[in-house]
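Sequence in, structure out. Go.
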Amino acid sequence: MTDTTRMNDDTRSSDSARGEMMFTVPGYCLLEGFAALGPPSAGLDLRTLSARDVIRLRTMNNEYRIELLDPVKRCVNVQGGRFFTEPTEAVIEGSGYGGALIKAGWIGIGLHLEIVYCPASGRTQSIVTSPVESLFLERAGM
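Output:
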């Protein structure tokens, strides 16, 4: 048991004495826990792919077609879901569990994908998908 855990246990008992409840945050939601997970068992690092490679992915709610324009900068053309009815230039920030922690440049099965784009309104928008269920990579020129 770490000192932090003991401190939380002590805090929990003193808080409950005051009638308050303390909730435990899952380890993967903390920076140390998220980093320790490493890459999920299935997924793609965009920076290892080539321009014009296409990723077809299905989330819990939608299907997307993502064509890589610049894998190092994570620039893509994305189409799918209600926000991308037409091919739209965007940046794939990465994947995470739906919070502030993101594995940059990674699309992981079971994780939420964050996509940033600039619609006609001119204001940058960030879209977080439902969890990715499956993906398929089509290599350019193959």
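Check: Helices lie at 3-17, 31-37. Residues 118 and 124 are 4 Å apart (CA to CA).
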